[in-house]
Design a protein that fits this description.
Dirigent, seven-stranded antiparallel β-sheet, mainly beta, apoplast, single chain, Allene_oxi_cyc_Dirigent, secreted
């Protein structure tokens, strides 16, 4: 059944079982952004030195982001960057990424290993790459610049 009680057609997206909804199937007054509001996405992604394919992997990011505005323009992010052979060196981040802005600031809220009790901030910029191939249309590349303060 659809959102307003009418039946809808669900198709797959490249083998994913995510439903496909067209604008004509949304309830009166609803937008796709309002339907996504509150959605949580969990991440476990590689961190690379540069944005080009084949760039050196320097660690990984694990955490989540939450669609935190009704218009879809911001995401509350909480994630940890893990470095080192055994992922013993970490930096943790928390803040709001405004997807419509050129860049956003988030706080460095701690760390471990050689980044123990890290403090500072990070600039997050969404890269719009034309030279990259995406397989499912939902890949997003972020450039994160970290600024740690002495404490």
């Amino acid at each position: 059944m659809g959102l307003n009680g009418a039946s809808t057609t669900s198709t797959t997206n490249n083998g994913n079982s995510l439903p496909f909804v067209s604008a004509g199937q949304l309830p009166q007054g609803a937008t796709l952004q309002k339907l996504i509001f509150g959605a949580i996405t969990v991440i476990d992604d590689e961190l690379t030195l540069e944005h080009e394919l084949g760039s050196s992997i320097i660690g990984k990011a694990q955490g989540f982001y939450l669609a935190s505005s009704l218009d879809g323009s911001s995401q509350t992010m909480a994630f940890t960057a893990l470095f080192g052979e055994h992922e013993e060196d970490t930096i943790s981040f928390f803040g709001v990424h405004r997807t419509a802005a050129h860049e956003s600031q988030v706080a460095v809220v701690g760390g471990s290993g050689k980044y123990e009790n890290a403090q500072g901030n990070a600039t997050i910029e969404t890269l719009h790459l034309t030279d990259q191939h995406t397989t499912d249309g939902v890949e997003t590349m972020l450039q994160i610049s970290v600024y740690l303060t002495d404490h």
